[in-house]
Structure formats: C-alpha cells, structure tokens
Specification:
Number of strands of chain B: 4
Largest interface: A-B, 16 and 15 residues
Largest sheet of chain A: none
Structural class of chain B: alpha+beta
Number of domains of chain A: 2
Distance between the termini of chain B: 24 Å
Oligomer: heterodimer
Structural class of chain A: mainly alpha
Radius of gyration of chain A: 20 Å
Distance between the termini of chain A: 66 Å
Helix content of chain B: 25-40%
Strand content of chain A: under 5%
Chain lengths: ~200, ~80
C-alpha cells in the first residue's frame, strides 16, 4: 500500500536542488536523483510526472519561498531609504539562510526552462517593487536613470558583497567576512549615490 | 489534470519507447482508454518511464497491451 511519505518527498526535493546546483540541469536525471536518495527509481515518479515536472515544481516552490523572504514587512509606500533598507535586510537574510539558492536559480535562468521559470516569477514581489519604483520616481526621491543602472547600484553592490562573504574572499583571494558595519556602510553609500 | 492523487493509482513502467512513433502509439492506445485518467512518458529518462494514473487498471494489463504492440514494458520498481 503506497502512502504519501512526506520525509521521502522532502528528501527528493532537497536532493534534486543539491544535484542541480552541483552538476547543472543537463547532468540531472530522475535516475541519478533516485540513486542519490538511495530510493527506488520509481519513487520520484510518485510525486512528479517527469523530470520537467519535478524541475518546474521545485523551482516554483523555491521562488515562493524567496518571495516570502523578499516581501516580508516591505511597504512599497515607504520613503526610498526605508524601503531599500528593508529590501537589503530581507535579501541578506535570504542569502544567509539559503546560501546555495542563487546558484540553483542561475541554472534555471540560463536553461530551456527560462521562459516558464520567468513567467511564474514572484508576482506579489514584482507588484510591490513596481509600486515602490513608481512612488520613489513620482516623489522625485531618486535621480533619473535607466532601470538597469538603478538596479545595479541598488542591489548589485549587495549581491557582490554577499558573494564575497559566501566565498570567504574578495578580489585577489583577499579574505573577507561580512559584518553589519560593512553591510550598512555600503548601504549608506548606495543611498547617497541614488538619492536626489 | 491530476487532483487529490491516490498513490495506489499511479502505475509506473520501464519501457523501450524512445521514438516519436512509439509515443504516437501510446496516444492511440491510452488517450481514449476509459480506464486511463491520464498518462505521460518521460523520454528524457534512460528507462523511458511511462506513468499512468488509473483507478482500475493493473500493471499486468498495461504490460500486456504494450507488449502486444511490440514494445518492451515492465513494472518500474
């Protein structure tokens, strides 16, 4: 009698993410997954129709988790500096609690699942950020610039520091550890450069 | 479309159906089969896993049908 085994289901999901990060999407198969979980090759097929179904369902679930982190206590009506600070807090917390997920999403972004992946991309979050951008632009809080420039300054800085922190080193192999002091000093400079 | 899945209704098979022709045959055999709720085949997998949702059909019945049409099919364990 087959019954739902939530532990096994969770193991399949976590191992799938691990394998995709380690070997890439091309190297990922249901067979490999079953072996890595030490379960029969049929078991992943109980929870998922096929490889594509597994990849998309896992991706969508992880996107939902990321969205929850990003929008927590974020109010798009807040002034620029407060809103951006909340985004930095939330994204940094996500990076610390789920350090490998960016690699997972990178795999998907540059794959044949790209379109499907992007179409399901955090609608609640997109809506809140669109509102926030509209507000800060309308209020004249930030300098005028292409969105890509804004994003690169507003978040590129943060993501670079996170990358250095995860790798434990910055340029030229110089050891690096993120501290609150470093993080919020960077934030202050970002705000200074973007604010009108 | 699968809703509230009873895992006992999920039948899994290892096959040698790797071609478009083979998949077309499955469409012919299974699409309008009254006892098949839905089905799919994972052509990306080396076992060409056939997955059938059916409340009444058994593994043996499916294996017989597929074998009869010249393809290998056995229960995936």
């Amino acid at each position: 009698m087959r019954s739902r085994n939530t532990d096994k289901e969770e193991l399949v999901k976590q191992k799938a993410i691990e394998l995709i990060i380690k070997d890439g999407l091309e190297g990922f198969s249901m067979n490999k997954l079953a072996r890595a979980c030490k379960i029969s090759v049929g078991t992943p097929y109980i929870y998922y129709k096929d490889r594509d179904d597994l990849i998309m369902k896992v991706a969508m679930e992880e996107l939902r988790v990321m969205e929850e982190f990003f929008i927590r206590d974020f109010d798009p009506e807040e002034p620029f500096e407060q809103g951006l600070r909340k985004q930095w807090e939330n994204r940094y917390r996500y990076a610390r609690e789920k350090p490998k997920m960016n690699q997972f999403f990178d795999q998907l972004r540059s794959s044949s699942y790209q379109e499907e992946f992007l179409s399901g991309f955090m609608p609640g979050f997109i809506s809140a950020m669109t509102r926030f951008m509209h507000n800060i632009t309308e209020r004249g809080e930030i300098e005028t610039m292409p969105f890509e420039v804004y994003w690169s300054i507003a978040f590129g800085t943060l993501y670079n520091l996170i990358r250095f922190d995860i790798e434990g080193k910055s340029l030229g192999g110089k050891p690096f550890k993120m501290t609150d002091e470093v993080l919020w000093r960077a934030f202050d400079l970002v705000v200074k450069s973007l604010k009108k | 479309m699968e809703t509230a899945l009873n895992f006992n209704h999920i039948l899994l098979f290892k096959t040698n159906i790797s071609s478009h022709k083979g998949k077309q045959l499955l469409h012919t055999l299974l699409d309008k089969h009254p006892a098949v709720q839905c089905w799919n085949i994972d052509m990306e997998d080396s076992d060409y896993v056939l997955r059938i949702i059916s409340e009444t059909l058994s593994h043996t019945q499916i294996i017989e049908i597929i074998n009869h049409h010249g393809y290998q099919c056995c229960e995936l364990t």
